[in-house]
Design a protein that fits this description.
The chain is an alpha+beta fold. It has 14 helices and 34 strands. Helix 9 packs parallel to helix 10 (433-442).
């Protein structure tokens, strides 16, 4: 007897599990049993699982009976004419939904030609195994799974046209490419999702070759002339928000030009852009450190009631200003109120971003890389017809990653550009590579996509054929302007007296064990003396008991809290973090005795 479980609960037993399952499936296709029910037989444990719970992923498939799919050409004609809907196909039992468990008992064919007598279902189209973004990758059946996934993720980070009303929106961290284009090599998903309305890349001429080593390690070399003509240009938008908050005791913030007696007042230079209401004017050019919205707040800690009367004179500065490395123009200013009815000011800053060394670009096949060099247009290689590539891609990125789709897109893009048409690169159903080669040959080019190029500097002909074609490239949001960071002196943490962490807080750049090793190997070991003293401090230490002593600078007197005045006290230079460790050990009732010796 075989056990039957409904949603994990034991319901009874059956003598013939195969017949039992076939009956449930037959009734489900008729509509007698709910179409949400899935049934699965596991022969290893001899149990039948019937599932009807919510939260299961289900996949639509065409039913195959006696080696023939139930969906016929007649059905397809009715669907195209609008006489037959998807729901009606499901109700008639032509299409059914299977969950992951029931798929274990099914044999699914990708294509009609592959159907055998054992086949139970036919896939609607192999593209249904992909998500929307992954389906945008052309010829992805010619690449490894890992790189198809990477290509999918990279498209989500690409700069594009994200919303038509971007001018009046106040979104955080927005990038907008100026001249987006539709790809020459596309898939059917581009048509389904109306990609024309929100494209996120540009068609570039790409040559696969090395250029003086500047495109090693996945880097790319870009034609300076292409950048001057607008390639990869984008705008970066970011809002700065200030609101008049209310505090206990009837105090509130005030958006205004701060007075000079306010605690934390910056220089007059920083406030020069503000108008009488304390807010900057539109189209003002601002740099880092300059105030955009002037604001003062009441003091944070009121120790006694007497300070309430002095609140006007002891206000502190809390203006909104551009952080380290930021610049731009004021785009729009919005004056409104928040939920509590307090004044709210939003200022949108815009900054034009021209591609520079370190900016990240990628193709749709996971071949990402940063700009290694921007070459003047005169020095770029050129073909016999005078065409220079916009981008030079390293040939070393292909063998290890095995992204053949990258090369086929170059060939397809070249054919499409010359023939003036779009090339279909839908996965498992694309235009055949052999046909593209024939068409390219008929257009007067070599069928393998290679051309003779000439060195832009010497004018000499390269002794090898260079693979060159058109490709859809994306500029990603990871730009140098948002990530560049340097620091000399700056804010430190209160507890450890070490520099704060993170670029936004003006933090330090940590030098770790491995970085230390590189300095030593380079012969610059004395540099470590300076590198490792960000929190150096001088501490009085008692030689007798080895504990941290006390130095009273007011009386110019030093004494030990354990030995009294008897101990001999010396000043020792150490890291403040080490002094903190000693204090924490003392809190654990551990006696950290320092044994002092001579310096040499």
């Amino acid at each position: 007897m075989t056990d039957v479980l409904l949603n994990g609960r034991f319901m009874g037993t059956v003598t013939n599990p195969t017949q039992f399952i076939e009956k449930i499936i037959a009734e489900r296709r008729k509509g007698t049993v709910s179409r949400n029910v899935s049934v699965h037989y596991d022969p290893r444990i001899d149990e039948v699982f019937v599932e009807s719970m919510s939260g299961r992923l289900r996949r639509p498939l065409i039913v195959v009976k006696d080696g023939k799919p139930l969906l016929t050409d007649k059905h397809l004609e009715q669907v195209e004419a609008g006489k037959l809907s998807w729901n009606e196909l499901v109700e008639q039992g032509i299409i059914e939904y299977l969950d992951a468990a029931e798929e274990e008992n099914a044999l699914v064919s990708f294509f009609k030609e592959e159907i055998t007598p054992e086949t139970t279902h036919l896939a609607i189209h192999p593209i249904d195994m992909f998500g929307i973004i992954t389906a945008l990758v052309p010829y992805s059946n010619f690449s490894t799974t890992q790189k198809v996934n990477t290509g999918s993720k990279n498209q989500k980070q690409a700069l594009g046209f994200y919303a038509a009303n971007f001018l009046i929106r106040m979104d955080m961290d927005v990038n907008l490419i100026h001249t987006p284009q539709r790809p020459i090599v596309k898939t059917i998903m581009h048509d389904f999702m109306d990609y024309d309305s929100h494209p996120s890349g540009q068609n570039l001429i790409v040559a696969v070759m090395s250029y003086k080593g500047y495109n090693m390690e996945d880097a790319i070399v870009i034609n300076g002339g292409s950048i001057e003509r607008g390639m990869g240009r984008s705008s970066y938008y970011r809002p700065l928000i200030a609101e008049e908050l209310r505090y206990s005791g009837g105090l509130l913030d005030e958006i205004c030009v701060p007075d000079k007696d306010v605690r934390g007042y910056k220089t007059e230079e920083d406030y020069r852009m503000l108008e009488e209401d304390g807010i900057i004017y539109p189209e003002a050019v601002v740099r880092e450190g300059e105030v955009v919205i002037g604001k003062t707040s009441p003091p944070r800690f009121l120790s006694n009631l007497g300070e309430y009367q002095l609140a006007s004179t002891t206000r502190r500065e809390s203006s909104e200003y551009l952080k380290h490395g930021e610049k731009g123009k004021v785009d729009i200013i919005v004056l409104t109120e928040n939920e509590e009815g307090n004044k709210l000011v939003e200022v949108k800053i815009r900054d034009e971003r021209i591609p520079e060394i370190g900016d990240k670009f990628t193709s749709r096949h996971g071949q990402k890389g940063v700009v290694g060099l921007i070459v003047p247009a005169d020095d770029m290689p050129f073909s016999a017809s005078g065409v220079s590539p916009d981008l030079i891609f390293s040939p070393m990125g292909i063998p290890s990653r095995m992204t053949v789709s990258h090369l086929i897109e170059l060939l397809g893009g070249k054919t499409g550009a010359l023939a003036g048409r779009y090339v279909d690169g839908t996965v498992f159903d694309a235009e055949v590579q052999a046909d593209l080669r024939k068409e390219l040959s008929s257009l007067g080019f070599r069928e393998n996509g290679t051309e003779t190029l000439y060195d832009g500097i010497t004018g000499r002909q390269f002794q090898v054929q260079i693979f060159i074609g058109n490709m859809y490239y994306l500029k990603l949001k990871h730009m140098v302007a948002n990530k560049i960071h340097a620091r000399a002196r700056g804010p430190i943490q209160l507890l450890t007296r070490q520099p704060t962490e993170g670029r936004a807080k003006g933090g330090g750049l940590r030098l770790g064990e491995m970085e230390k090793d590189t300095f030593i190997a380079h012969g610059a070991s004395m540099l470590l003396k300076e590198r490792f003293d960000s929190d150096d401090t001088v501490v009085p230490v008692c030689e007798k008991c080895g504990m941290v002593a006390i130095f009273d600078s007011y009386k110019n007197k030093r004494y030990c809290p354990v030995c009294g005045d008897d101990g001999k006290i010396e000043f020792v230079e150490m890291s403040y973090a080490f002094k903190l460790l000693l204090d924490e050990l003392k809190a654990l009732c551990i006696y950290p005795k320092l044994v002092l010796g001579d310096k040499y």
